[in-house]
Amino acid sequence: MLKEPLVREYLNDIIEDENLVIVQCLLDGTNTDEEIAEKTNIKLNIVRKILYKLYDSGLASYKRSKDPETQWYTYAWKFDSETIVNHIEDKYKEHIDKLKVLLDFEENTMFFTCETKHQRFTFDEASENGFICPECGEEIKFEENNSIIKRIKEEITNYETNYNALKMKNAK
Description:
By secondary structure, the chain is an alpha+beta fold. The protein folds into two domains: 5-79, Winged helix-like DNA-binding domain superfamily/Winged helix DNA-binding domain (Arc Repressor Mutant, subunit A, Orthogonal Bundle); 84-171, no CATH class. It contains seven helices and five strands, in the order ααααββαββαβα. It has helices at 5-12, 20-28, 33-40, 44-56, 81-107, 123-128, 146-171, and strands spanning 60-66, 73-79, 111-113, 120-122, 141-143. Strands 4-3-5 form a three-stranded antiparallel sheet. It has a two-stranded antiparallel sheet with strand order 1-2. A hairpin with a 6-residue loop joins strand 3 and strand 4 (120-122). The two termini are 14 Å apart. 13% of the residues are buried.
């Protein structure tokens, strides 16, 4: 699972790359913070900090049990693989939706800019300024945005391809 670029990217937003070994331990069946610390040679307090970050993100859960002899609590941790896939799918869907809104805005709006490209103006903004840039005083001219539209469409296609591939893997 950690070989998947989307999973790694998502986890890197939560924990640092060097701490992915903790997630790998959970996936491999090591489930207590002490065992993980021993196996990875990472300090116990750091292991616990990472586990709680995963817990706060909804990607890990734990069961607490009390040792009858020592009266100490032991925490058995579990990584939720299904939840991470659902989180990634939600994130991708949200990003695709935002890109589609942006694409619609770019396709249905006329833009204007000055020679030095201080700022982009919609038609209404440009007319309010008398087609003069408020920063440099230069005339504001129509700006062709076909390259921007093309780039947004490519980005949407890329995200949809990755999103659909992830859904297919999750469905299996």
